[in-house]
């Protein structure tokens, strides 16, 4: 309660408490600008949840390729964290805690072929963190995804090492380990054509599918699909679960989807970019993908394309990087379409890699333009002139 | 109903809301304060001129501050007693004005006495307006614009709609709903009075969707002719209750209902008044009772029994917690107003003024905020902004001093509703930044 006090210059002094209230007197009250409630999302937590959701697919790579995969991941992550720490020390800005270096390192490791000389992931991570991210001012100011910047740097610097793969588990002994995409390129270059899908083409060229694949495909064909009069080609199972040579963390599409589903459900990533990206790419690939192979229209084999290379990892985890993608919903939809088109051209008309990293980097360059053209129009508040 | 949605708000957020304790939604009378500190500036405009000096005896409802010109409002004594001091005092929002400290004593002139009802139907619009002016009625929804200005301004051209705004804007605040539940007849009369002044064509009561079932029958009964007033249920997404959004939604809804497309702005003026303001209009005109008390939600996790109180203007904020079962723990932050737009105060020694719609006491752990981290361009603020702005871009423009560029991208549309800052995962104080940008823009404009 207020009491009038004896002396004082203002109300502050007059508004002293009575004895009875003194127990509760002068609590330390925090003062801050409105609003006084905050949302539930936190930028600090976002990166760590992305990292966690990448782990199952990375673990699959380690299971598939063994110690070399683990080494690549460890070097990628270790170098990224170290680079972040050192640049942070140099510029007096400690940001290791925000988890973005962790995500960058993990993505670099996952995009690398297992067994690649370890200086490659190290150089890619360091380039991504120091040049692509920190030199532009750190998290939030980089205009290019650091992991992709590093990987593309490695792709152009060591293109041979970046396309030498390790055989997957249970593959036929002594067979040259080729990723399905490079095997397809070789087969097409060899001029051999086969009827049926792309997998049949690979099979005709003696692609070393695993023994497990043979058992599963035979069983499914015999027990399930025979009723419908259909059959699966060899390799379908290997492609589906990711038992194929490829990057450490990109081969297992199901485990990547599990992580992506969690991120989507928690609104860490938005659906706009992955959906338009994948749909655009699949439609174009199915429509025109057969043409450069001399297979005609509508014979692109979109499922094969969807499951090979780093498309799923790229669409859900790298194209959705908020820093380098457009701000608005419309912008994100357009961005996804652009990425789908770019990926198609880069994948089919020879660029190093499978086209995804380069396509997303080019998309990053387009993002500011898309932002500019999709800036929302301010809705007039219809405010009456209250003078 | 489905079609209507397209006219409603875009963006917005769903902030957490503290529920009232059981029975807390019934309006309780706060006890009469032993001292009331009454500032002469409780409204938008110039401060009233103080008419009393220390030692003066005042009656309940006596005029103690006279409106200084047209853009000002009268101030009345909220309790009978003796003026102890008249001095400059700093209000919760940091503005200083002359304030009178009244020590309670003597008898109530009005409280507890049978009231004489005025036959307001006999009065001319000018007289009605005069009563509202002399009673010191201001916009109690938060705008604090003297109500006679809002009603008088329209007198030149007739208003199409008079909208009673009963959509609770702030989360956690429930006083308007309690008021509508208990004083529907009075509010209805208030609406009719304002309709008469404005010569408005239509009366519309806007309420939150979740209260439609409960409140709509009350108001249909409150009007002699149920067709007099339309009831519009609006979604309860923050900040739907904002005056401009209510106005826009009602205009769009009406246009949709008439099948006339978008109405032209000319000749279709709308006046939006908060339901608490309309109740004050009723009291002023029918009961000759000046605005000396208001309805306040006392809430927050640190309050034991959150509820709605009828409080005399000038009561110390800290004393109101006792009326609600006291505090569970010493609060970490106390906010006057609502959690989204309210002002956090340094102490509990501020008086309740006409502008205090709620008191929210946060616990220590709630008051702690995460550190500000760099913008990751996630776009959450863009999706949250009900006015279609790009808060993150405006923030960056303001930070680098490009106020002109920010203004050309709609900075002046910002109503400081707080949606962007609420949604921001990087905890960037966007509202603060945009507000300072607007202020800088206004300064440049004046140069």
What's the gist of this structure?
Chain A is built from 16 helices and no strands. With 387 residues, chain A is mainly alpha-helical.
Structure description:
The complex is a heterodimer of chains A (387) and B (447). By secondary structure, chain A is mostly helical. Chain A folds into three domains: 43-163, no CATH class; 180-241, no CATH class; 269-373, no CATH class. Chain A has helices at residues 11-14, 43-65, 67-91, 100-111, 119-133, 146-157, 180-189, 198-204, 211-228, 236-241, 253-265, 272-288, 302-307, 311-318, 329-348, 356-373. Chain B is of the alpha/beta class and 447 residues long. Among the domains of chain B are: 3-19 and 114-286, NADH-ubiquinone oxidoreductase 51kDa subunit (Rossmann fold, 3-Layer(aba) Sandwich), CATH 3.40.50.11540; 380-446, no CATH class. Chain B is built from 14 helices and 17 strands. Chain B has helices spanning 125-134, 147-153, 175-182, 184-198, 212-222, 243-258, 275-286, 317-323, 364-367, 380-384, 391-399, 403-408, 419-423, 430-446; strands at residues 28-29, 35-39, 49-50, 57-58, 63-66, 75-76, 81-90, 96-104, 159-166, 202-208, 229-234, 269-274, 293-299, 307-312, 333-336, 343-344, 358-362. Chain B has a six-stranded mixed β-sheet, sandwiched between helices. The radius of gyration of chain B is 22 Å and the shape is globular. The model of chain B is unreliable at 1-6 and 260-267 (pLDDT under 50). At the A-B interface, helix 1 and helix 2 of A face strand 7, strand 8, helix 6, strand 15 and strand 16 of B.
